[in-house]
Amino acid sequence: MEEKIIKDKLLENFLKYVSISSQSNEENKDIPSSKGQLVLAKKLAKELEELGANNIRINEYGVLQAVIEAKGVDEKKAPKIGWVCHLDTVDVGLSPDINPRIEKSYDGTDIVLDSSENIVLSPNEEKSLANYLGDDLIVTDGKSVLGADNKAAIANVITALWYIRENPSIKHGKIYLAFVPDEEIGLRGVRKIDFDNFDVDFAYTIDCCGLGELVYETFNAASGNLKIKGLSAHPMSSKNKLVNPIMIAHDFISMLDRSKMPEHTEGREGYIWITDIKSDVINCEVKFNIRDHDKKKFLNKKAYLMKITDLLSERYNKAKIEIEIEDTYANILDSVNEDNYLAIEKLKKAFEKLAIRPKIIPMRGGTDGSYLSTRNILTPNYFTGAHNFHSNKEFIPMDSFYKSFLVTLELMSI
Ligand SMILES: [Zn+2]
């Protein structure tokens, strides 16, 4: 099939999915946190039906799952592969509605996204633009993100399924699909996959940026809350009575290593990040995140926080000090084993075959795969082709988008 026809289909699908506003809403504790995500899930369910998928189901959390049966191969011998895409776009204070436009054969100059607000995507600022001369770029109107994160992935997978259907000679194993809500607000949706019906050997997400990016190493992550209950007294007669929880919080924070905070770390350096403090004269809460690629260092960080909490409890024995730490996701790399290593191998081979140079990145964050790896489903992550996720300067070059599609097709077919 001609490249042009595939690109048109990719574009058509992408524009269709971004036209459905599906920003997630951190304030809403329901899953899905916004109606638009369910609208999109329903639309996709219908398309999957037309594409011949089986077991199509949207569960009570708005997770859409489906299966494509194996074709032309011994089902027992072919790996069962899953794809996980997220339905939400991120809320970074921009419009939930996305109105993209296409900058045809990019000429290397400034791209004016919004002339009234003077929002410009400039090659002076965005150096990667120089790589895309002559390519068609999908850009925003400056008022929202583009939503290639993660609708480029959805378009990618749906287009691959369409391609497989149009080309019956393609053999493939059993394909599992999960479209999950609320990835952007703490990987909430992926936890609600019906895992009894997601019987994969391994899975993939397509949820990072420029051409060639490949991620199978993410942070181990936990978040926590330190709760301090002090004692109040009128300051006229508070000597030896008043216990100020804010001063205890101050001690707690001052016992942290300033050189191991997000503003002083990069690459594989982990950190503890104080994210919130709320207090009155009696109750204080300090929220924090713990991140480290290295499992041992991650555990040490947790242990250290427990230790200083004990120490403070001793020092301020009239106060009540409690710490809660909860794991949120784990490093994908730690779920690699002999049986599932094929997931990474297949990906590297696909890149090689398509002459795409892999850029392997230890991600300073997590993907849906970081949660899946805690369930022993190895889930590497590869590029959509887009740049500037979570920004109104997000854009996707058609050529990279197409290459991302080719990787998916290569991974699916045998
Ligand atoms: Zn994403």
UniProtKB/TrEMBL annotation:
Annotated Zn(2+) 2 binding sites: 149, 184, 390
Domain Peptidase M20 dimerisation, first and last residues per copy: 216-318
Record EC number: 3.4.11.4
Residues binding Zn(2+) 1: 86, 149, 207
Transmembrane segment boundaries: none
Family: Belongs to the peptidase M20B family.
Name the UniProt record assigns to this protein: Peptidase T
